[in-house]
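Project standup — Tuesday

K.O.: blocked on the structure for the chain from last sprint. Re-posting the sequence here as requested.
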Amino acid sequence: MRNELKETGVSVTCLMPGPTETEFFDRAHMEDTPVGKDDDKDDPAMVAQKGYDAMIKGQSGAVTGFMNKVQATFSGLLPDAIIAQMHRRMAEPEDS
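H.V.: unblocked you, prediction finished:
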């Protein structure tokens, strides 16, 4: 999409946040998952600011969260099945 719109004056920036301290985990009934229990989620205002800053700079994307940055870095190197397994472990209830 970014490439298709490059000559229109419209920019596209993809915000790819890691776990963020919002109501998402409660609403998704994910409180009993490793990612839901994690007390080190990013501040939503910081995530929004990083996305806004990237958009203003005309960047194609902004990734927040340490582990999310690690996964984004290795996503082109590791097989999709391994990345999917990592996500599954974070989002699976611990009593499963």
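K.O.: great, moving the ticket to review. DSSP finds five helices and two strands in the chain. The mean pLDDT is 90.
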